[in-house]
Amino acid sequence: VGDAQRYRSKEELTALKEKCPIERLKRRLLEWGAQESELDALGEEARQEVLQAVERARASPPPDPATVLEYVYSAPALAALSRVKP
Amino acid sequence: VSQTFIEILRRALDEELGRDPAVHLLGEDVAAGGAFGVTTGLAQKYGAQRVRNTPISEAAITGLATGAALCGLRPVLEIMFIDFATLALDCLVNQSAKYRYMSGGQLAVPMVVRTQAGAAGGAAAQHSQSLEAWFIHVPGLIVVAPSSPVEAYGLLKSAVRLGDPVLFIEHKRLYSLKEALPLNAELPPIGQARVARVGTDVTLIAYSAMVRNALEAADELSRSCLSVEVIDLRTLAPLDMATIAASVSKTHRVVIAHEAVENGGLGAEISARIGSDLFDELDAPVIRVACPFAPIPFAPGLEQALLPGTANIVRALHGVAG
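^ Those are the sequences you sent over. The predicted structure of the assembly is below.
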């Protein structure tokens, strides 16, 4: 997923990963006394939430093409739109 | 009691702040009144939490307002000049306009972006533009452009209450204009044009400050026994084609007047719709009165030479009436 970044050297990517803000925050929190297990649990919780959302999306029926113009505007604005035909 | 456009805007904001604690004002120097004094005194009345000065970064503050709206507030953001809305376009176009659609209606961005546009008194090429056409091209955005203090009062209040991202464009030439607010007037609905003058021979469509020129031109034509119907669009997106169609079906002749450049302007869109929906009604080609394709010059003589005005509209009306 995402840009494979073949135009960057391995060294550059490794150096940049060292600066990853999530990893840096984790290191800082550990310095401040957080437990590794605590942070792992938080990470796992987030992972599960995303996985469940993916599962729910895959299990849902594809959207009905008849709804393609829905949710562009609020109901009052839509009332104006339908009056004037979009 | 007559009040200026600026005083009436302040009154509308004051009343909305008083009515709904979710309403907040944001913008560069708004706590001190803003560049044109629209918000003067409101920070003293409602506190610095609800009338907030922001840093001078349109991109950042439009993001701030959008986030606040997503979280349940009703921010009214001031972008000092529409020319600076260029810096806010990513947020307005890619974020504010898209949340409702991309979340399947779970999220809303009830936000008003007040801004000020148009040419007056040598503000020059970077502070005089009429950029409304950019925004009518974006599904999800509402664009409103009032033509008078009284219209601005009602439309601003309606915009605050609507629940969608609204770009509210004030014309700087209207700011010193005075009118008295009628008592207990109903708020004009967003998305509905107004017949500003009833007529039978030509439909003249305008918005913002150009409505005043349109009314002047209609007056002048009445002396040549030509009856001009003036439509004040008020909302530019969505366009009220029903009001336009009713008028064109009566007059069979159309002139569209705006201060923005002709190329790709509102006039092009309206003219195309009239051409396809009302072709059989037309007795003459639809004529546009708009700014020639040049930036607004600083020199007063040049500014005046470039800007379309009442005389241009009068000529167009004579032309279309044959």
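The CA atoms of residues 210 and 249 of chain B lie 23 Å apart. The first helix of chain B runs from residue 5 to 19.

Shout if you want it in another format.
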